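JOB MANIFEST
job_type = single_chain_structure
chain_count = 1
residues = 112
[input]
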Amino acid sequence: QVQLVESGGGLVQAGGSLRLSCVASGSIFSLNGMAWYRQAPGKQREWVASISRLGGTNYAYSVKGRFTISRDNAKNTVYLQMNSLKPEDTAVYYCQDTLDHWGQGTQVTVSS
């Protein structure tokens, strides 16, 4: 049974940083691409960033240059380093694997 568990969310002031983690279990993590999504209140879930099994990355325009996705296959973990945070980054952040498994989400709140 595949399980994805996110952590690292919290409350931060605008301009601050957070690092989210997503630990995967029950799958061959190194074979899967991984992604981060977010959902703000009253809005649809949106894609934030992806990393392929070989480490290639892609970012949504709204976060490019501020967020960095990375992975550590030895730890079955994908990260999202978020810098220069803005109030509009406030959302629940979810990780997803390429087999469409999802974590439970972690709340990120950026105060102005």
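[summary]
The two ends are 40 Å apart (CA to CA).
The first strand starts at residue 3 and ends at 7.
exit_status = 0
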